[in-house]
TrEMBL record:
Gene source species: Polaribacter pectinis
Gene3D superfamilies: Zn peptidases (3.40.630.10)
GO BP field: proteolysis
PANTHER family the record matches: METALLOPEPTIDASE M28 FAMILY MEMBER, PEPTIDASE M28 DOMAIN-CONTAINING PROTEIN
Domain of life, source organism: Bacteria
GO MF terms, alphabetically ordered: metalloexopeptidase activity
InterPro entries: EF_Hand_1_Ca_BS, M28_fam, Peptidase_M28
Protein name: M28 family peptidase
Residue span(s) of domain Peptidase M28: 115-326
Amino acid sequence: MKKTLYVASALAFMACGSSQNTSKNDDANLDQSAKYAETITAKDLGKHLFIYASDEFEGRNTGEPGQKKAVEYLKNFYVNEGIVSPLGGNDYFQEVPAEWINKNTRRGTFKDSENVVAFIKGSEKPDEIVVISAHLDHEGVKNGEIYNGADDDGSGTVAMLEIAEAFQMAVKNGKGPKRSILFLHVTGEEKGLLGSKYYTDVDPIFPLANTVCDLNIDMIGRIDDRHKDDPNYVYLIGSDKLSTELHNLSEEVNKKYMNINLDYKYNDENDPNRFYYRSDHYNFAKNNVPIIFYFNGTHTDYHKPTDTPDKINYELLENRTRLVFHTAWEVANKDTRIVADKVADKK
């Protein structure tokens, strides 16, 4: 009887130990990308966007008081999250001088503006930089009406905040990215891609030769007429133009995690809209930095005062934001840097 009890107890102990080991192994093998992507939620995206695209920000026109409020909102977010500036200290603003802005645009006369920059240092390959970008500005106030720019590009801006927060959670848990990530909120996009041009052509904080790719988010919160019956989509532009590897990685990540319909309609060289040349990724692409441009297409509220946060589809915004996060995670954690195997097509 004692022998039987001893054997039973031993087996029970072994089973318990085995269960504990299995649990530890399961935890170690947990898909970290999926774990942190779940922290990106429609609710949090909406919280940010109803503030960022509110009348208080006066349409975020380049250099104007509403735009200054917007950059302070972004800076405060990064400070509160403990995400540092690559410029050091409390300086999250890359100044873009009025003189330079006005020399490079024909769309009016503007005051000094700024890009907002935040940075997570890579744990193994800190000198290799993955850029995630979106433009912080919009059209401002015209004829007494505020152009809130909820989709353009409030949606991309708040997506970046949620992506940054997810990566920072990973850092706090000792699972930070191998490569560094630069969160680049650019100004003056509506005036001719000026903030991104200033970054790439005048003052790249990190050498473009060390820049792995730019994942650019510009309008991902709405549904266009083409997809009314198939809303789970996003347009991808430029993913294959400089790096076959980046394009394939993007496809694989989507199949593994999101199963969004990746629509390449506007990636066509003969597309008359020429969207490839019309958002901030292009200033990286022209310098042979691989890019992906995430876009939901235009709609009836595009560049109108009716582009308001109540019209955003937050579930879709969540899905698309998670797709960008998963792609950034994969690029940042690959053993080898993605290869640019093609040459930039310059307009």
